[in-house]
Amino acid sequence: MKFLAKIFLLTVIDFCIIWLWVKTMDSDPSVSIGILLLVPSIIAVNLLIALVLFFTKRQLSKFFLINALISAILIYFLFNDGISRYQRNRLESWEFKVNGTTYGIIYWKLENTFSMSKGGIQVLRWNFWKESLLLPKMNII
To answer: 52 with 112, same domain?
Structure first.
C-alpha cells in the first residue's frame, strides 16, 4: 500500500505542476507541435532523476521509472486540453449546408466580431464594437 500511496502522491504533484504550467502558458493551436518535444523530454527528465536516485537511494528510483510513463501521459492530455480551452475561450463556430454549399459562422469572442464564409471563403466580417461591416478585398477577373 505504501508503494501505491507514493506513486499516487507523485502523480498528484506532477498533475499540479503540469496543469499550472499549461494554464499559465495558455498555448494556442500553433504550438501544438510542441507535444512532440514535451513528452520525450518529460520522460528523459524522469529517467535522469531515476538514474541519479539509483546510485543514491535505490528504493526511490523505481518511483521515477513509473512516473516517467505517468507524467508523459499527463502532459499529453493536459497540453491538449489547454489548447482546447484556448479555442473555447476565443471563438465559437457553426457550419451548415444548404443545397450542397457549406456555410460557416465564426464568433470571435475577444474581438466581439462575427465572420461568415461560403465554401471556405470569407465573405463577411462584422465588428459590433466599431459597428462596421468589413468586406474582404475581392479580385474579380
So the answer is: no
Alpha carbon distance 126, 24 (integer Å): 31
What is the C-alpha separation between 64 and 58, in angstroms, rounded?
11
Is 10 in the same domain as 70? yes
Per the structure, the complete domain to which residue 45 belongs is given by 2-89
Span 60-110, pLDDT tens digits:
899 999 999 999 999 999 999 999 888 888 888 889 888 888 888 888 888
For residue 8, which phi and psi values (nearest 5 degrees)? -65, -45
Residue 108's Cβ-count burial label (10 Å; 0-12, 13-18, 19+) is middle
- Examine residue 82 and state whether it is found in any structural domain, yes or no: yes
Q: Say yes or no: 85 and 108 in one domain.
A: no
Confidence of residue 136 (pLDDT cuts 50, 70, 90): low
Pairwise CA distance, residues 41 & 46, whole Å: 9
Q: What's the whole-model pTM score?
A: 0.70
* List of residues 6+ apart from 128 with CB closer than 8 A: 112, 113, 114
